[in-house]
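User: If only I could read backbone structure tokens as easily as an amino acid sequence. Those tokens are not coordinates but codes from a learned vocabulary of shapes. Could you go through the record with me and say what the backbone is doing? Here is the record:
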Amino acid sequence: MKTIKTLSVAAIAALSLVSFGSFAAQSISAHGSTLDGAEAQIAAQAKASGADSYKITSARADNGVYMTAELYK
């Protein structure tokens, strides 16, 4: 019984690492004069890196726009 529990825990741990690894994110940033311009740069970087999707994580507009995003493959 103890062997079965140990194997089950090991299998669950291995599967959770596999699924987490497939959704690993890469952070990127862009500067622009407008929100649309900064997002266009993010989209271009995502396409160039072969990402399936991206999620904008922050945007700040002071004397221009600074935006960060995470790329997902």
Remarks:
- The longest strand covers residues 53-61.
- The chain has a mean pLDDT of 81.
